[in-house]
Amino acid sequence: MIHDTLQIKNKTLTTRLVFPPMATHSSAKGHISADLINHYTAIAKNPLVGTIITEHAYVDPTGKVDDKQVSLASDDVLLAQRHLVSSIHAVRPELIVIAQMNHSGAWTNEDPVGYELLSSSDVTCRGRKARALTKEEIKYLVGQYAAAARRVQAAGYDGVEIHCAHAYLLNQFYSPLLNTRTDEYGPQSLENRTRFLLEVVAAVRDAVGPDYLVAVRLGGCDYQPGGSTIEDAAQTAVLLEKAGVDLIDLSGGTCRYIRQDHQEPGYFSDMSAAVKAVVSVPVLVTGGIQTPADAEALLQAGKADLVGVGRALYKNPRWGFNQ
After folding, report:
1. Residue 168: active-site member
2. Which residues does UniProt assign to the signal peptide (predicted)?
3. Which of 36, 91, 210, 307 gives 295 a disulfide partner, CB atoms 3.0 to 4.6 angstroms apart?
4. Which domains does the chain have, with CATH numbers?
């Protein structure tokens, strides 16, 4: 099944294997570096890979993880972004390339110089205090996501992915562990917790049009007491499909990309199976997949439509092919 094609909108994925977004922290003050181009073109040469989702890029300077994160926050990055996409497509024109965009909120490696740390609520994260976004600031950031999505489309990417996982900003609203608001964005209901995310989805869809591929990386379950649950993930996936999302990419919430005491291939596959059962759009699962046989087994078992292999491909771009 790895070699099966998959149609998403007007795009044909040539295989079911995805290189998911993995931060390299190798940009040059937000711009695409030569090292970054070499990194992605090396992976593009692997014929098992049908899709590359590039590492998270910040939509606003207040949401930078660090100074080596890629930027989508201004038009001056467009030339270098186009060069990255064209370089990947020069290796394999049929490869689907999706850009992930993000706001880190309180989850940063360092305080963004000149900016307050922002979050869903007044929280302390990684030893630093953040304050709750106002409704006006939420509206502003929705616009920043939309503007970044337009840049992604203008740069020639095949699609855009909205990051709502790994304890970053949108996930800070989604997780009851980090959301203590008392307004309509608060934790009182799943509708409230997903409101910001769905506003971003609507703005992005409006910005890129009806035919462009829009994905969401959903940290659907915190796998912690009092956190978001697999049931939440399934219900949110239904909302995302209704909102026009074309691909749901599942990972961890506040547990980030690991699951405590779990190292089996596809350790988020209990979540992906639950989500796949309630939506018709493709579902992508990542986590702990070490061999092509692992990926094939997950696909054969119906746990997901697509399988992401991150660390193994990061270490060896020729993973699974002529090793």
Report:
1. yes
2. none
3. 307
4. 6-315 (3.20.20.70)
